[in-house]
Amino acid sequence: MSVVDISFEVRCERLPRDHGYVLFRALADAIDWLEGDDSVGVHPLHGSTSTGGALLLGRRARLLIRMSSARAEQAMALSGRRLEVGNGLEIGPGRVRELMPHATVHSHFVSTGSSDETEFLGRAAAELRQAGLPERMISGRAHAMDTPGGTMHGFSLMLHGLTPAQSLAVQARGLGEGRKLGCGIFVPHKSIVAVGDAE
Questions:
Q1: Which H or E run contains 65?
Q2: Model confidence over 74-108: pLDDT tens digits?
Q3: DSSP 24
Q4: Which CATH architecture is the domain 3-98 placed in?
């Protein structure tokens, strides 16, 4: 299965910093097949944090949704929609981005169900091993996300020393829980630095 990212221009003045669940619910309400499609991952939105704790999106901010390429045309129906997230998230034109193989990939937040770093790494290694992927990784900052089912815990994670095929495989499948909430989605990273400093 071919997996791609769909990149949408967005406009929104303020979002909750912890917006993973509310963004997913708004997208699932707008796209009836999104919740049931296991290939879908919603990248976290990035911006600057205001003094009040809100997330401020810049003009270059993009909403990225990872999915099967077979769904890409259907996903374009999001263009022109306004989602009830923050003070209103307006979605502009979208375009398809192919996944790029890179020896080092990084995820802002990977959750394996544990807030203990040693246990987290053990579970991540087991999942990589089961998928036939190398277990070369560096963990970084601890993260937490509130959801109706409770608080999700995890860490940022870098995987390195990947072949092109392994890089594309881990980007396509993700790692851990909460893919639709912005967790376990890997993107290329240019160098191996302290993961906590890379965010």
A1: strand 62-68
A2: 999 999 999 998 888 899 999 999 999 999 999 99
A3: H
A4: 2-Layer Sandwich (3.30)
